Amino acid sequence: MSKFKFILKENLNRIPKEAGVYCFKRGKEVLYIGKAANLRERVKNHFAQPGYRDYLFLDKIEKIGYIKTKSEIEALILEANLIKKYQPRYNVIWKDDKNYFFVEITKEDFPRIFITHQKKFKVQSLKFKVEYVGPFVDGKALKQTLKILRKVFPYRSCYKIPNRPCLWYHLNRCPAPCLLKSKFIKEIGAREAGGRRAGWSPLDSLKIKKISQQNAENLIKILKKGKNPVLKDLKREMKFLAKNRNFEEAAKIRDKIEALERIIENAKIFEVKAEFKEWSEIEEKLKGILKTKKKIFKIEAYDVSNIQGKIATGSMVTFINGRPDKNFYRRFKITGKFTPYRTEGSGAGPNDIAMLKEVLSRRFNHPEWPYPDLVLIDGGRAQLNAALEVLNQHKSAKSASISVLALAKSKNELFIEGQKNPILLKNLPREIFNLILQLRDEAHRFAISYHKKLREKGLFGSC
User: Fold this and answer.
1) Which residues have C-beta within 8 Å of that of residue 352, sequence separation ≥ 6?
2) CA-CA-CA-CA dihedral for 54, 363, 409, 414, to nearest 10
3) Phi and psi at residue 446, in whole multiples of 5°?
4) DSSP state letter for 120
5) What 3-state class would DSSP assign to 7?
6) Can you say how many angstroms the Cα of residue 369 is from the centroid of all Cα atoms in its chain?
7) Which terminal residue of the chain, N or C, has fewer Cβ atoms less than 10 Å from its own Cβ?
C-alpha cells in the first residue's frame, strides 16, 4: 500500500492538484482520512470553509499527508483501505456500521452485488454466505463506481432471479441467469454461438454461471486492491488464449482490458461542489429530534471545569447557524454562591449541579445578551432538570421558549426536555451527531482554557 507524503499545514500549496487521498495527523496519530478529485483544493476547503465535523480536529492538525492516484475510483478504494488500516479517530467516531457503506456480494451460483449500510444479511431463509467489501464513506461515489465497473464486469443485482430478462440484460450489464428459466433460452443460445447454432445445452448454463462468478470475483478484487491485480490476471489469460490459438476469446479479453483501463482513468465520481450541508437541512433534522417547529438560530453550550470543586470555572460557547461565534463566548469564575463543594455527609465532593445552576443563573441575569433558541448542558437527567429549574426562575428567559438538551458522557446519551427516555448519540443523524459533539468539545475546551489561565495567574483564592 502506498505511503503518505507529509507536509506542514503552512505549506498547503505544495499539495498536488490531482486525485488522491489525504490525511491529517498529530504526532503519530492519524486524525482523519479523506479523498478528493483535487487534493489541494479539498484540503484548503477544510480550513477555509470548515464543515461541522472539521471543527472537531482542525486545531489538532500538525501535519498533512497525501497520496496521489491515477483516478477518482482508485482514490475511493484507497481511502477505504486506509481507513480500515489506521482507524482514524474522526472517521470511526460513528461506532455503528450503518453510517458507512459496504459492497455485499452473495456466495451463490449467480452472485448478487449491491450496496448496504450494515454487515448483516437480513434474509435468514437463504442458505448462502456473503462477503463484504468496505467500509466506504461516500455512498454516491461508491454507487457511481459500481455503475461504471458494471460495464466491464456485468453482474446480477436483483433480489430474486425473475422469470424473464430485465433492462440490465438488454443493456449488457448482467449475465442474465434469469434466461435459464425463461422462454428466451433459444435466443441466448443462438447469440452466444454467434449465430452458428441454435438451441440450448448444459454447457450454456455452465457458461453463464462461470461468467457470473468470474465477474463478481474481479469486481471484489478491484474494490479491495485496485485495478492492477485484475489487469494482471486478464493479461495472463489473454496470452494463454492467444498461445492456444483461441484468438476470438483472446480478443474479447483484450477489449475488456482496454475498457477497464479507460473507464477507471476517466471516471468522474466525486461531486465538484463542496461537501457541506446547509444549516437549513441540519436545522430541520434538529427540530424533528426536539419535536418543535420553532426556528433554531442560536445555540449555547455550557461546561464546568473544576478540581475537587475548589477551583471551578464555567464556560458558555455560542453557535450561530451551526458555526461558532466567539463574540458571544462567556467565562464564569464560580463564586460559591450555590455551595460548589459539599463537605458534609456521604455526599462530600464537587457539587456539579450547584455550579451549573450558578453559571446558568448568572448568564440569564443578562437579558441584554440575546437569548438562545437551544441550550446544551454537559450532564444527564439531573443537570437537565437543574437547567430547567433555573430557566423557570427567570421569566424573561422562560418566555423565550428555550429548548434544553443534556449530554451524558458516560454512555453518550442525549436527554431532551419533555422526552422520557434519552437517545443514544450514535443513533442520531450524522450531522446532528457532529453538531452535538462539536458543541460539547468546544464548551469543554473553553472552560479548561480559562481554568488554566486563572490557575497560572494565581487568581484563585481560598474559594
Assistant:
1) 304, 379, 383
2) -90
3) -65, -40
4) -
5) strand
6) 36
7) N
Do 428 and 436 contact (CB within 8 A), yes or no? Answer: yes
The CA distance from 130 to 407, in Å, is: 38
Q: Taking 50 as the threshold, does the pLDDT of residue 124 lie above it?
A: no
Confidence at residue 256, expressed as pLDDT on a 0 to 100 scale: 84
How high does pLDDT run on average in the chain?
Answer: 80
- Residue 324 has a pLDDT of 87
List, in order, residues 6 or more apart from 443 with CB less than 8 Å away. 301, 302, 303, 315, 316, 317, 376, 378
Q: How many CA atoms lie within 13 A of 167 on its CB side?
A: 0
**What are the distances in angstroms from CA 238 to CA 226, 235, 249, 258?**
20, 5, 8, 12
Cα separation, 207 vs 189, whole angstroms: 11
The DSSP bridge partners found for residue 263 are none
Mention every residue, 6+ apart, whose C-beta is less than 8 A from residue 69.
18, 19, 20, 21, 75, 78
* Ordered structural domains, the chain, with CATH: 5-92 (3.40.1440.10), 98-227 (no CATH), 279-457 (3.30.420.340)
Cross-strand pairs, 415: 406
Q: How far is CA 389 from CA 76, 280, 360, 382, in A?
A: 50, 31, 10, 11
pLDDT of amino acid 51: 65
Q: Are 375 and 405 in contact (CB under 8 A)?
A: yes
Amino acid at 179: L
Instruction: Tell which residue, 273, 269, 276, 256, has the closest CA to residue 77.
Output: 269
List all residues 6 or more positions away from 144 whose beta carbon is below 8 Å from its beta carbon. 267, 269
Unique residue bearing C-alpha cell 490557575:
455
- Cβ contact 434:53 at 8 Å: yes
SS3 at position 387: helix
Helix (H, G, I), strand (E, B) or coil at 65: strand
Residue whose C-alpha cell is 482513468: 265
As given in the structure block, the three cell numbers for residue 426 are 450514535
Q: How far apart are CA 305 and CA 203, in angstroms?
A: 75
Angle between helix 202-225 and 227-243 (nearest 10): 140
Model confidence at 104, in pLDDT bands (50, 70, 90)? confident
